[in-house]
């Protein structure tokens, strides 16, 4: 990690520690605490890190953005920080100016399709759009004939059917039929590229959340006393913590490797497909296994609403489905390998 990454991550962590402590957020009875958090994130330039300065953004690198996303995962932030970063990245690819407002992106499911008609209006629906009902704008990747187009729409002009994901955050069905974008521009990337970028983003969030869950579990095991000694002294608990540490390390490695590959070139080639698919699959598996282990270590208290563990584990499990599930990416990866042939598979893997 570079010095720039460390500074950006430290800034994000300091803001989150001050304004989004998980215990405080868990005890909050309304959403008033979100406004000062979002204001601080925006003033620090973190929400538009992936927008160049020429377009009104912070001009940070992809590495800086992924450092921010890792911190967002480590605090299980219930605000659209990762989604606004992704929206800014998508707008930047189309050369569109930045917006300081909260944003999200659509579609997030591989099979959803949105079109921009000749009349300048959108057609189509997108399921499970994260934070759609909280966002001011939705940045849509649509098809206009044979071209890919980025369209920015005002959320209030869309028909939003509110729903929540596993972690309790908005995960809404959005109907874009008849909505006229306030801005649109051709874009050189397609929906596959967006799914790939989103998959790496969610992988980074899962890895960050697993780090927090591991620290939480180790701390609890050292504090909880049973039979006159900390439960962390029992071999069975130690084995579980070692397994959780292994899952966390695997997720961090996979997510970091995928992010590093993106840094070296954001074209959708076989190497990037391998890294992104492997990261989403491995981080998804780590989320499921890690959540189960953490709750086993914590016992009954970990399942209560008053304990913060669920804020992390449920969000990790929910992020598995965004931008393609494990099965989706495993199938994509398998098809890619099959098309290349067995003679090309080992050189591809060995080159990583």
Structure explained in plain terms:
The chain has 352 residues and is of the alpha+beta class. The protein has two domains: 184 residues, Butyryl-CoA Dehydrogenase, subunit A, domain 2; 160 residues, Butyryl-CoA Dehydrogenase, subunit A, domain 3. The strands form three sheets. Strands 1-4-5-8 form a four-stranded mixed sheet, with helices on one face. Strands 2-3-7-6 form a four-stranded antiparallel sheet, with no helix packed on it. A hairpin with a 5-residue loop joins strand 2 and strand 3. It is globular, with a radius of gyration of 20 Å.
Mean pLDDT: 93
Shape: globular
Strand order of the largest sheet: 1-4-5-8
Portion of residues within helices: 40-55%
At the fourth level of CATH, the homologous superfamily of the largest domain is: Butyryl-CoA Dehydrogenase, subunit A, domain 2
- Any low-confidence stretches, pLDDT <50, length ≥5? none
Assign the CATH class of the largest domain: Mainly Beta
The CATH architecture of the largest domain can be named as Beta Barrel
Count of helical regions = 11
Task: Give me the count of strands.
Answer: 10
- Give the assembly state of these chains: single chain
Beta-strand residue fraction: 5-15%
Helix/strand order, N-terminal first: HHHHHEEEEEEEEHEEHHHHH
| Radius of gyration, in angstroms, nearest whole number | 20 Å
* CATH fold topology of the largest domain: Butyryl-CoA Dehydrogenase, subunit A, domain 2
> How many domain modules?
2
Taking the alpha carbons of the first and last residues, their distance comes to 18 Å
Described by strand count, sense and barrel closure, the largest sheet is: 4 strands, mixed
Class from helix and strand fractions: alpha+beta
């Amino acid at each position: 990690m570079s010095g720039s990454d460390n500074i950006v991550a430290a800034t994000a962590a300091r803001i989150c520690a001050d304004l989004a402590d998980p215990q405080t957020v868990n005890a909050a009875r309304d959403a008033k605490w979100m406004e000062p958090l979002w204001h601080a994130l925006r003033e620090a330039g973190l929400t538009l890190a992936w927008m160049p300065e020429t377009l009104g953004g912070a001009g940070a690198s992809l590495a800086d953005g992924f450092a921010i996303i890792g911190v967002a995962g480590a605090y299980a932030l219930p605000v659209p920080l990762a989604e606004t970063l992704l929206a800014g990245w998508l707008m930047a690819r189309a050369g569109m100016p930045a917006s300081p407002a909260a944003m999200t992106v659509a579609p997030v499911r591989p099979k959803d399709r949105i079109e921009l008609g000749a009349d300048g209006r959108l057609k189509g629906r997108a399921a499970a759009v994260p934070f759609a009902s909280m966002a001011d704008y939705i940045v849509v990747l649509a098809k206009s004939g044979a071209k890919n187009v980025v369209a920015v729409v005002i959320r209030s002009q869309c028909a939003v059917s509110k729903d929540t994901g596993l972690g309790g955050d908005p995960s809404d069905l959005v109907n874009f039929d008849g909505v006229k974008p306030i801005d649109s521009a051709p874009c050189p990337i397609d929906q596959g590229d967006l799914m790939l970028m989103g998959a790496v983003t969610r992988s980074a969030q899962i890895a960050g959340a697993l780090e927090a869950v591991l620290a939480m579990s180790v701390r609890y095991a050292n504090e909880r006393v049973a039979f006159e000694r900390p439960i962390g002294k029992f071999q069975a608990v130690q084995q579980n913590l070692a397994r959780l540490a292994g899952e966390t390390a695997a997720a961090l490695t996979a997510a970091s490797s995928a992010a590093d590959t993106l840094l070296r070139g954001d074209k959708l080639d076989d190497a990037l497909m391998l890294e992104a698919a492997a990261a989403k699959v491995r981080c998804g598996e780590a989320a499921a296994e890690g959540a189960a282990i953490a709750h086993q270590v914590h016992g009954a208290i970990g399942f209560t609403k008053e304990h913060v563990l669920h804020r992390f584990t449920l969000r990790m499990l929910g992020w598995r489905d965004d931008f393609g599930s494990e099965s989706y990416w495993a199938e994509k990866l398998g098809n890619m390998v099959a098309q290349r042939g067995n003679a090309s598979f080992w050189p591809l893997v060995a080159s990583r």
